[in-house]
Amino acid sequence: MLLGADVDRNNVLLRLRKPLREMIDPDIPLLAKLIREEFLMDEDKQSVQSKDSLQKRNDMLLDFVHQKKDLSLAAVQFTGCLLDTDQNHVYHFIRCNGGKQMCYLACFKSFS
């Protein structure tokens, strides 16, 4: 399980940044959830939305994750928001190290 207490979550997100640029849907549901969770401010949301491509919006969003003081907590909050906005495939991709690791718990969770 990659998102356990002993793993540097920032490194996982950094390693997976390139594919995550293509996978995350950075628009309304996710941004709204991140604001409700006080992960982003409204001005951050506007910065993300101002970018003209999916990849640039996701770059900006991932930059906000990496800029958090407590990167481990930021990764947990961010991936939780992915789950809450029906981006389970992205959550599982992160949790399973880009598909390089078996994640029985992640797969089981999606069926429960």
CATH topology, by name, is Death Domain, Fas
CATH architecture descriptor text: Orthogonal Bundle
Order of helices and strands: HHHHHHHH
Counted by DSSP, the helix tally is 8
Oligomer: single chain
- Name the average pLDDT: 84
Structural class: mainly alpha
Number of strands: 0
Shape: globular
Tell me the strand percentage band. Answer: under 5%
CATH class designation: Mainly Alpha
Q: Any overview of this molecule?
A:
By secondary structure, the chain is mostly helical. The chain has a single domain (9-111), classed as Death Domain, Fas (Orthogonal Bundle). The protein has helices spanning 9-15, 17-23, 28-36, 42-49, 54-66, 71-84, 88-95, 104-111. The longest helix is centred in the C-terminal third of the chain and has 14 residues, at 71-84.
